[in-house]
Amino acid sequence: METAILLFMISIMCFIGAWISFKNQANTIQSINKVIDNLKNTYDKVIPLGYRNDELSYVGFNNKTRCITIKTKGTNNTINYNDIVKVELIENGRTTMSIGNVIGGAVLAGGTGAIIGAMNKNEKIISRKVKFSLDNFDNPSYEINLLDTGKTAECGIDIIAEANKLMDTVKYIVDNKQKI
């Protein structure tokens, strides 16, 4: 009898813990969506990268100022559209996609980017970053470590989809520098 009561109490505690966790996750997702909605007042496009310590890591695109703002770990970095020379998606130290300028604004990687370093599908991703090569003597490059931007999946952020959106948006900027 005591064992049955003990098991019943443990089950109730597990249920309550799971319910509280679910409510916290729902509140976090709601908070993230509210922050993104507010950021859309400043930026034409916002790409969330993660959530940590009540702070959203994101990339914001402002076509009026022609700048990209990257906020990660409480720091902001701004990149001018015209300074972008090349952008690479690097996984486990290998470039998997590269988009860049060539004379006259043509795109190095072609219409959709180039898969340069094919990865084994079973290979575990231990590093994933986006590297901006810039036409800026003082700051010739900037990297975003996509695996160190805070919580993602549990906050409703699909980091792979967001990385693809980031690459596609930068490709659009590189292709259309004169129009934006």
From TrEMBL:
The keyword Transmembrane applies. Keywords: Membrane, Transmembrane, Transmembrane helix. The chain crosses the membrane at residues 6-22. This is Uncharacterized protein.
